[in-house]
Amino acid sequence: MYSVLKRVIFFVLLIGLWELLFRLGIWPEYILPSPLSVCKTLVRGFQDQSLLIGVAISMKRIAIGYGISIGIGIFTGLLIGRFRIFEETLGSLISGLQTLPTICWLPLSLLWFGLNDRAIIFLVFMGAVLSIATGTDSGVKNVPPLYIRAAKTMGAKKWKLYLEVIIPAALPHIIIGMKQGWSFAWRSLMAGELLIVCLGLGHLLMIGRELNDMSQVIAVMLVIIIIGVLVDRLFFMKVERHIRERWGLTKA
Amino acid sequence: MSEGVGVDNLITLDRVTGDSELAASQVNSVRPNLCIQHVSKSFQSKNGSVYVLEDINLEIKQGEFVCLVGPSGCGKTTLMNIVAGLEKADSGEVWANGRKVNHAGPDRVVIFQEAALFPWLNVIKNVEFGLKLKGVSSRERRNIALEYLKMVHLTRFQNAHIHELSGGMKQRVAIARALAMNPEMLLMDEPFSALDAQTRWILHFELQNIWMKTKKTILFVTHNIREAVCLADRIFILSTSPGRIKKEFFVDLPRPRDDNDVSVAEYSTKIMKELKAEIDKVIKCEMDADSCVECDIKCTVVEPAKTDIGGGI
What's residue B242's pLDDT? Predict the structure, then answer.
């Protein structure tokens, strides 16, 4: 409760400072808009649904790209974690690709898919898949062999062993990989949308720049921050806390 | 009685080698038990191969409670793993419940020294785990799980997380989880050795009660002679490097037995005396040899070597 109060006071002071700088009139409005005009732009954006549509389009892209990367990432992570041959081949490929910033895939993506949604979804996919794969890999390698032996004596075989034991046991690491993957995916989505003209939040940001409308630029930035924070708080933090409680890691 | 079983077994085994599928089902219906034949196992190390188990032969009747006792490093756990199907023997065969053991299976559930419960499941879901693998419906497996949780007196904790349980409780959940699968036999690999004396004492009672109720065949590995006398019908003493069955004891004391019973203590002392030579050998080896690998070589070679030198001088 006390910490919430401190946070509120901090942000009120910050906005106050912003308003003060605006009132001093050192910079023109297209460089530094007032908090109020940013707020108005936000409200207008939601009223005429341009912001809502932008959010919806961006979320659809990330949902598809991230969804595919979860599936493929976990699958390749399992292969690398369980089979020597895949670790030595696929594993080295993945650790090599990880050094490449995701946005470097953009030219390739444009040539393969053209100027459309699929190019951006590919960027999102490439952003997340490597982190998820390496997270799963380390999770699988850290599964205590005792769990696998115990499950085997109870009749767990083949895919059931993976589904009922290896994946659940590796879940804490998989979640860490997914969290990192999400933040990479979110970044590459925005980068892609800034560079490819096809709606979405990144595109709204670029429209703001083209119209010299600084309040729209800041409003869209705020929306991007808020979505990022919400996903982190509402999903990942909850899942992580749940796992920590369940596994008894809270007090450690 | 035991001779009869032995003969019976030989006959059934002859049949099995003839027509394994048919005979297996017959044997299973007649007399499910455990039969270990000429099992040997060695490990490769930098000094060559070391025999951990050498020509182990034993038979366990259905419903029997058998303990394997031996000093640490004598291959008890290896033998247990071979019976469980988690490891392969170099030579020899293991027959369990009329089938040749090739891999791990739910008819021989193992209870490990650490409970090996799954932290992502709560207590009752852990007990249900094996049943879920078998494809038992969710309501039925809940009922079965509750029944066995009741047997180990832990129904109160059915929704608890695993980390909230004490060591003894964890082992009881592990026992319930194994029993819920209704296996032909339980393989227990030093299940109580990580627990404190009091908890162990309680669990000795519980295990005896469960065994008397369910009449499961139990193969129990321990290094604690008192524990073995308290629990078993029959005790096999294993020797070290290479692991061989050194001696067999029958325990026919009334049940439930208590670790602290005078009769249990007396019997333990008797076995201890028999084991004394074996323990001395282990101590001597550990003091003589730097590594366990050279152990049996030195133990057998040292003495004649000395006399040779003496003769030379």
Answer: 77
Is the CB of residue B110 less than 8 Å away from at least one CB of chain A? yes
Closest CA–CA distance from residue B127 to any residue of chain A (Å): 11
Looking at the partner chain, which of A147, A154, A248 has a beta carbon nearest the beta carbon of B130?
Answer: A154
Query: Could you tell me if residue A3 is inside a domain?
Result: no
Quick one: tokens of B173? 């959940």
Quick check: is A12 in a domain?
A: no
**What pLDDT does B311 receive?**
35
Domain range holding A217?
34-247
Task: Say yes or no: B250 contacts chain A, CB-CB below 8 A.
Answer: no
pTM of the model: 0.79
From chain A, the residues in CB contact with B186 under 8 A are none
All residues of chain A having their beta carbon less than 8 Å from the beta carbon of residue B104 are: 149, 152-153, 155
How many residues are there in chain A? 252
Of A149, A155, A164, the CB nearest to B105: A155
Residue B237 corresponds to which tokens in the numbers above?
């003493």
Distance CA B182, CA B176 (A): 10
**Residue A23 belongs to a domain:** no
Number of domains into which chain A is organized: 1
Query: Does A4 reside within a domain?
Result: no
Q: In which band, very low, low, confident or very high, does the pLDDT at A15 lie, cut at 50, 70 and 90?
A: very high
Average pLDDT over residues B291-303: 44
Q: Give me the pLDDT at residue A249, please.
A: 78
Mutate to test the interface with B, among A148, A154, A164 (most CBs of B within 10 A): A154
Cβ contacts of B84 on chain A, cutoff 8 Å: 153
CB contact under 8 A, B161 and A154: no
What are the structural domains, with CATH classification, of chain B? 2-312 (3.40.50.300)
Long-range contacts from B11-19, C-beta under 8 angstroms, 24+ separation: B12/B98, B13/B95, B16/B95, B16/B98, B16/B100
| pLDDT tops 70 at residue B307 | no
